[in-house]
UniProtKB/TrEMBL annotation:
Keywords: Membrane, Transmembrane, Transmembrane helix
Domain of life of the organism encoding this protein: Eukaryota
PANTHER family for the chain: SERINC-DOMAIN CONTAINING SERINE AND SPHINGOLIPID BIOSYNTHESIS PROTEIN, SERINE INCORPORATOR
Membrane topology: Multi-pass membrane protein
Family the UniProt entry places it in: Belongs to the TDE1 family.
Sequence intervals crossing the membrane: 51-68, 97-116, 137-158, 164-185, 197-221, 233-251, 258-277, 297-320, 340-361, 381-400
Main location group: membrane
Full protein name: Serine incorporator
Keyword Transmembrane helix: yes
One GO CC annotation: membrane
């Protein structure tokens, strides 16, 4: 900004006479300040817009839940569906969730197509992303209504595609979580020039490991107390092994990454293991789920609402983390650049629509789920367990790969040094 202002000032000085030099220069500064204020307002409006999209996503989640659990009572009264050749039984339970998810996907994918490659705040697509809410509300309602008139075969096809999209969402979420853990480790365990923060980092790493070990012990006590619970014993034991492996590799002399990041990751995979075991169906002999009535108790309702909020937060946090998935991270943001990547943000929400559909139907397109339940069933259990193992694998590779790269470079440099020594007189 300073170099640009100096260049403009020199031009003004050359063109204008000496008695009028100050006036155009002040006008230019005022214009630049007005643009700066305008860009600041646009950025603020853009940041606020993402919360509105998060609210839209949460509302579609609640609509999907309502259609699944209570849609039969409401939609069965809409007799005009039969005139369209649609059976009302194809509009609730699993099919209802998929239809709502399809509408949510259509809306956010359309937003992705219309905002992709937006880079500047003065572009029309920035105004479209941050405003025009009445028009977008009409488009959202239309997007949610149209799928209820789509043939069931196409909805089933979308359900199959949603499994893939949900898997991609989980992968992107894992990468985002691991990058956040890396950033947190760098923040709390800085270099030696900031020794005042090291004690707090060591305290937090110890706290995370204690929490992880306590989680392992509690899971053994609650979910693997009998020898017949072979599967749960395997899940918990393998999680404990992964915890130890991550700690040992983090402390290895060639890696030397400290205990904080591995401690946070250990807590994360223990949490994934716990959610996987919690997803086991209530009919399983070692299931922690209690047999409850159709409406469920208050703990079921609270757990359900927390799960809905967690889905929204996971989608939101991954959507605004576009920096993690950029190939070049050294680009300097200019004043008129958008604060986050709109296209990536909406793409994550469109994949999140597929993900919440799979959670509501427990990754099973052929069976209905119990009221006030979410992500319960053997398919959900195995998806979470595989997600846990995949997260641990990605993290371990992130620890090991720099050491492997350095060793390859060292092995490549040693023959060259030996060759130089042999040719020297």
């Amino acid at each position: 900004m300073g170099e640009f202002a100096a260049a403009v000032k020199s031009v003004v000085v050359e063109i204008k006479p000496s008695n009028s030099e100050v006036v155009p220069w002040e006008d230019l500064l005022e214009s630049m300040e007005q643009k700066s204020v305008l860009y600041s307002m646009k950025k603020k409006k853009s940041r606020h817009a993402r919360y509105f999209y998060g609210i839209i996503f949460m509302l579609t989640n609640l609509i999907a839940w309502f259609v699944r659990d209570y849609g039969e009572k409401v939609i069965s009264q809409l007799q005009y569906l039969k005139s369209w050749g649609i059976d009302e039984h194809d509009c609730f339970h699993t099919m209802g969730v998929l239809r709502v998810s399809l509408g949510c996907f259509i809306f956010f994918f359309m937003m992705f197509l219309t905002t992709c490659n937006t880079s500047k705040l003065y572009e029309v697509r920035n105004t479209w992303h941050s405003g025009w809410w009445a028009s977008k509300l009409a488009i959202l309602i239309l997007s949610l209504v149209v799928p209820f008139f789509v043939p069931s075969d196409l909805v089933q096809l979308y359900g199959e595609l949603a499994r893939v999209g949900a898997g991609v969402f989980l992968l992107l979420q894992l990468v985002s979580v691991i990058e956040f853990i890396t950033w947190w480790n760098n923040y709390w365990m800085p270099d030696e020039r900031k020794k005042q923060s090291c004690f707090l980092g060591l305290f937090m790493s110890t706290l995370f490991y204690i929490t992880s070990v306590c989680g392992i012990v509690v899971m053994y006590a609650l979910y693997a107390s009998r020898p017949s619970c072979n599967l749960n014993i395997f899940f918990i034991t393998w999680t404990a092994i992964l915890l130890v492996v991550m700690m040992v590799i983090s402390l290895h002399s060639k890696v030397n990454r400290g205990l904080l990041s591995s401690g946070i990751m250990a807590s994360y995979i223990v949490f994934l293991c716990w959610t996987a075991i919690r997803s086991e169906p209530a009919t399983a002999k070692c299931s922690p789920q209690k047999q409850e009535n159709a409406n469920g108790g208050w703990t079921t309702v609270v757990g359900f609402l927390i799960a809905i909020f967690a889905i929204v937060m996971a989608t939101f946090s991954t959507g605004i983390d576009s920096q993690t998935f950029q190939f070049r991270k050294d680009d300097v943001l200019l004043e008129d650049d958008i604060p986050y990547k709109y296209g990536f943000f909406h793409l994550i929400f469109s994949l999140g629509a597929m993900y919440f559909a799979m959670l509501f139907i427990s990754w099973n397109l052929d069976s209905s789920t119990r009221k006030w339940s979410i992500d319960v069933g053997w398919a959900s259990t195995w998806v979470k367990i595989v997600n846990e193992w995949f997260a641990a694998t990605i993290y371990l590779w992130k620890l090991i790969s720099p050491a492997l790269t350095e060793s390859k470079v060292r092995d490549h440099e040693e023959p060259a040094q030996q060759l130089d020594n042999s040719t020297s007189p």
